[in-house]
Amino acid sequence: MKVLLPIDGSVYSDRAIEYICEHSSLRAKTDTVYLLNVQKKLPSGFASKIPNSEEILDEAAKKILKPAKKALEAAGYKVKMKVAYGKATNRIVEYAQEIPATLIVMGSHGHTPVKGILLGSKTSSVLASTPIPLLVIRHKKPGRTEVGVCLDGSEYSPAVLTFIKRRLPLFAKDARFHLINVASPQNGLLIPEVSAFGAPALSSEEFEKEQREPFFKIAEPFEKYMQEKGHEVVEALLTGDPAAQISKYAKEHNLSLMVMGTHGGSSLRIMMLGSVTMSVASQTKLPMLLVHHDDPTLLRDLSKEE
Description:
Blueprint: E1 2-6, H1 11-22, H2 24-29, E2 32-39, H3 44-47, H4 53-74, E3 79-85, H5 88-98, E4 103-107, H6 121-129, E5 134-137, E6 146-150, H7 156-166, E7 176-183, H8 204-228, E8 233-239, H9 242-252, E9 257-262, H10 267-272, H11 275-283, E10 288-292, H12 296-305
Parallel strand pairs: 1-2, 1-4, 2-3, 4-5, 6-7, 6-9, 7-8, 9-10
Antiparallel strand pairs: 5-10
């Protein structure tokens, strides 16, 4: 694995560094951690009046990068440092493609459900600009055991499960995975089957079973695979408002990380993350691993296996 870690010297970057340092299983499967610090270029008018302005910015970046490099190397990682100049989002995405990165890890302050503040403007912009999976470390110090995996049965759910299987070193050896699926209640409405002859309405049990069928289809082989790898898997079958139920379950079961799929493609849609993901992010302080269905590193892995 190749991990890109953009840092800015903040406490949130420190938490991301700490997360990587604590994961011995990740270290064993990681080729290199690529540290990146992006400095804003001074306006040309100011830069011309300040001698050696780029050298000053370069030195400021190295003061941020060197302690992080030392900590990661002490934890056993091979580390490369890079200083870039310009708009942070652009430089992060460009460097991720150049590596090419398997995973981007970013610290973020966001907790409020306001566009651009939820995960931080830089983090949201990076998520919008690249299909590479993004691990967002937020307020809560990440634990390494109880992992929530949100599965709605859509085309994005298999991508999440494939990512977990291919990137198991991201998780602790004793990690327990909670497969979370939320069904909508029938609310007493008659839901007729599709028939021109007026077929009987579905019962509440039949309605729920039909909703969960895509979940069971992908969950069963995943559970078998994970159990063979020594991981416990729990099915969390919930009913109600998805965001509220997921957030409640996360708190009640002390989840330490939430894994969710995202569709990618549109900056506007990604900035909002989708209503469920956004609501969960605003109602919990959990680190969040956001996986795109078209993650290029997974596509490369799969093509090699064919």
